[in-house]
Amino acid sequence: MDFFTKKESIIVIASIFIIGVLLFIKSFGMDKEPKLEGVDTAFSESPVEYNSIVPSKVEVESSLIMVYISGEVYHPGIYELIVGDRVVDAVNMAGGLTGQADLDKINLAKKISDEDKIYIPGIGEEVALPIEMETNIQESGKININVASSSELQSLPGIGEVIAGRIVEYRKTTKFKSIEDILDVSGIGEAKFKSIKDLISIN
Fold first, then answer.
1. Greater confidence, 84 or 141?
2. Which of 21, 42, 82, 111 has the fewest Cβ atoms within 10 Å of its own Cβ atom?
3. 44-53, 56-65, 82-91: which range is least confident on average?
4. Contacts by 175-179 with C-beta closer than 8 Å and gap 24+?
5. Which residue, 111, 87, 81, is CA-closest to 101?
6. Dihedral sign, Cα of residue 187, residue 190, residue 191, residue 196
7. How far apart are alpha carbons 40 and 51 in whole angstroms?
8. Contacts (Cβ under 8 Å, ≥6 apart) of 61
9. Is the pTM of this model over 0.90?
10. What's the topology of domain 129-203?
């Protein structure tokens, strides 16, 4: 027995076909994102560029000095130190004092200069002056300010590394003709001159 006539069957099939087409169109349309004309929905994600400031390389004037230390230290030799360092710094670089070092004959607080030779005497040892000291320090104990080294000048009361350096620079162009000429050196006034005048000479 037929449930549908031929005409009814055609109508049912056509209806199913139309419904299927509508469902397909609806499904296809939902997969697409709506795009508004004239509106750019894309966002740029390009990285932000920053102008980095790179400091230029600055050449720093060398402040290194070389000294030779020997005697009662564990590792005698030539060492590199910094301007303003003292004998104690050189001693530490050389491994420290041995048990035989005579502390009464050395000044650990004394500032050192480039090319200095530091000798640490032993207990009971008679210390002879280095050749350059014998030349620049007279038998009277006076220091020849025309030839004395920076270290020797610093042994004078009130004369530190800076003023000793000024004395050395001054005599490069002008020889001291009298001990009073040292007053022309910046940093040496009447009071300081009185404290050293009996300790210096010009020849």
1. 84
2. 42
3. 44-53
4. 175/146, 176/145, 176/146, 176/202, 177/202, 178/202, 179/145
5. 87
6. positive
7. 29
8. none
9. no
10. DNA polymerase; domain 1 (1.10.150)
